[in-house]
Specification:
The protein is mainly alpha-helical and about 250 residues long. It is about 75% helix and about 5% strand. It is built from nine helices and three strands; from the N terminus they run H-H-H-H-H-H-H-H-H-E-E-E. A three-stranded antiparallel β-sheet has the order 1-2-3, with no helix packed on it. The radius of gyration is 19 Å and the shape is globular. The relative contact order is 0.14.
Length: about 250
Amino acid sequence: MAIHHQSFAFVFGLIVIGNFISFLVFLAPMPTFYQIYKKKSTEGFQSLPYVVALFSCMLWIYYALIKKDSGLLLITINSFGCFIESIYIAMFLFYASKKLRLSTIKLVLLLNVFGYGSMLLSTLYLAEGSKRVNIIGWISLVFNISVFAAPLFIMRRVIKTKSVEYMPFNLSMCLTLNAVMWFFYGLFLKDYYIALPNTLGFLFGIVQMVLYAMYRNSKPLVLEDPVKVPTQNGDHIIDVGSQPQIIKLML
């Protein structure tokens, strides 16, 4: 009975802390959309991070509904994620140019409607039981590993410029703690589809903070004719006369 009580307390603690940290991560783009609201324009901002985040939340909710014993934290925080990401996308569509609005609508239809719908129908009708759970779990795992690989771009930029301007420490720490909470939640429930991708998120987060400690007092190298365009969470698109490189931290 004591073990059961401790286990319940541990899981409850993970749910509270994990939900709180994930809640902060979902709210991180709010300053960006405040700027969009004030300027009545999306300027150089991109809709892709929010569309991808919405897809990820939808995917995890479906996984949690299929595998009921891993569902509480996944359903609660990703339901909020779907809500807030939908608001971000709606605001983006409202203030975007006609060309950017059309490209965003196409992206939403391709990924969140047809992509998600095809995955949903195929797993519902072509797979059953544990096989269905495994298929959805692998899709979620591969997708989240690709998302966690995104910080490689920002780490490369930090090393190249010797500047942490584009890698806010608070956001890096928050994302790292978020990965830790999800990892232990998945590990405790023996759900490795949740735990494994977050090991990568944790490792990348640690590397980011080490890089921050190394370069926070360094004099940044000046790139040739840099043009900075603000994007979400204070990140930037840097145009150095060639193809723009999107520097982005993603969940």
